[in-house]
Task: structure prediction
Amino acid sequence: MDRVTRLASQRAVVIFGTSSCCMSHTVTRLFVDLGVNPTVYELDEDPRGRDMEKALGKLLGRNPSVPAVFMGGKLVGSTDKIMSLHLSGGLVPMLRNAGAIWV
Result:
Protein backbone atom coordinates (compact mmCIF):
# COMPACT_ATOMS: atom_id res chain seq x y z
CA MET A 1 0.00 0.00 0.00
CA ASP A 2 2.85 2.40 0.81
CA ARG A 3 4.40 1.89 -2.61
CA VAL A 4 1.09 2.63 -4.35
CA THR A 5 0.59 5.78 -2.28
CA ARG A 6 4.14 6.97 -2.91
CA LEU A 7 3.99 6.37 -6.67
CA ALA A 8 0.52 7.92 -6.94
CA SER A 9 1.67 11.14 -5.29
CA GLN A 10 4.68 11.72 -7.55
CA ARG A 11 2.78 13.04 -10.61
CA ALA A 12 -0.43 14.92 -11.36
CA VAL A 13 -2.09 11.88 -12.99
CA VAL A 14 -1.05 8.31 -12.31
CA ILE A 15 -2.69 5.25 -13.83
CA PHE A 16 -2.10 1.74 -12.54
CA GLY A 17 -3.01 -0.81 -15.17
CA THR A 18 -1.86 -3.90 -16.99
CA SER A 19 -0.45 -4.11 -20.49
CA SER A 20 -3.18 -6.52 -21.60
CA CYS A 21 -6.15 -4.57 -20.17
CA CYS A 22 -8.17 -2.77 -22.84
CA MET A 23 -9.79 -0.53 -20.20
CA SER A 24 -6.36 0.60 -18.98
CA HIS A 25 -5.48 1.50 -22.56
CA THR A 26 -8.81 3.31 -23.06
CA VAL A 27 -8.43 5.44 -19.93
CA THR A 28 -4.82 6.27 -20.80
CA ARG A 29 -5.86 7.26 -24.33
CA LEU A 30 -8.60 9.53 -22.98
CA PHE A 31 -6.13 11.41 -20.82
CA VAL A 32 -3.65 11.75 -23.68
CA ASP A 33 -6.41 13.05 -25.96
CA LEU A 34 -7.23 15.67 -23.30
CA GLY A 35 -3.61 16.85 -23.33
CA VAL A 36 -2.51 15.07 -20.16
CA ASN A 37 0.78 13.22 -19.88
CA PRO A 38 -0.14 10.54 -17.33
CA THR A 39 2.37 8.32 -15.63
CA VAL A 40 1.34 4.73 -16.29
CA TYR A 41 2.46 1.76 -14.21
CA GLU A 42 1.89 -1.58 -15.91
CA LEU A 43 1.55 -3.90 -12.92
CA ASP A 44 2.12 -7.07 -14.94
CA GLU A 45 5.57 -5.74 -15.86
CA ASP A 46 6.58 -4.79 -12.30
CA PRO A 47 8.16 -7.36 -9.96
CA ARG A 48 5.96 -6.03 -7.12
CA GLY A 49 2.93 -5.61 -9.34
CA ARG A 50 0.87 -8.39 -7.76
CA ASP A 51 1.20 -6.79 -4.30
CA MET A 52 0.28 -3.38 -5.70
CA GLU A 53 -2.72 -4.89 -7.47
CA LYS A 54 -3.94 -6.38 -4.17
CA ALA A 55 -3.51 -3.01 -2.43
CA LEU A 56 -5.46 -1.28 -5.21
CA GLY A 57 -8.22 -3.88 -4.90
CA LYS A 58 -8.58 -2.97 -1.23
CA LEU A 59 -8.63 0.76 -2.01
CA LEU A 60 -11.19 0.38 -4.79
CA GLY A 61 -13.18 -2.33 -3.06
CA ARG A 62 -13.33 -4.41 -6.22
CA ASN A 63 -11.54 -6.78 -8.54
CA PRO A 64 -10.21 -6.35 -11.11
CA SER A 65 -8.44 -3.42 -9.55
CA VAL A 66 -7.14 -1.92 -12.79
CA PRO A 67 -7.19 0.60 -14.15
CA ALA A 68 -6.91 2.68 -11.01
CA VAL A 69 -6.55 6.42 -11.57
CA PHE A 70 -5.06 8.91 -9.13
CA MET A 71 -5.13 12.68 -9.58
CA GLY A 72 -3.14 14.94 -7.33
CA GLY A 73 -2.21 11.91 -5.23
CA LYS A 74 -5.85 11.02 -4.52
CA LEU A 75 -7.67 7.95 -5.78
CA VAL A 76 -10.36 8.95 -8.26
CA GLY A 77 -11.47 5.49 -9.33
CA SER A 78 -11.56 3.11 -12.24
CA THR A 79 -12.88 3.30 -15.77
CA ASP A 80 -16.52 3.79 -14.82
CA LYS A 81 -15.75 6.76 -12.56
CA ILE A 82 -13.40 8.40 -15.09
CA MET A 83 -15.87 8.04 -17.96
CA SER A 84 -18.74 9.31 -15.81
CA LEU A 85 -16.70 12.37 -14.81
CA HIS A 86 -15.75 12.97 -18.44
CA LEU A 87 -19.33 12.73 -19.72
CA SER A 88 -20.66 15.00 -16.96
CA GLY A 89 -17.99 17.65 -17.60
CA GLY A 90 -16.25 17.13 -14.27
CA LEU A 91 -13.01 15.55 -15.46
CA VAL A 92 -11.32 18.59 -17.03
CA PRO A 93 -11.79 20.79 -13.92
CA MET A 94 -10.29 18.00 -11.79
CA LEU A 95 -7.34 17.78 -14.16
CA ARG A 96 -6.83 21.53 -13.90
CA ASN A 97 -6.94 21.39 -10.10
CA ALA A 98 -4.38 18.58 -10.11
CA GLY A 99 -2.07 20.61 -12.35
CA ALA A 100 -2.27 18.11 -15.20
CA ILE A 101 -3.57 20.63 -17.76
CA TRP A 102 -3.59 24.42 -17.95
CA VAL A 103 -6.16 25.11 -20.66
In short: The two ends are 33 Å apart (CA to CA). Residues 13 and 58 are 20 Å apart (CA to CA).
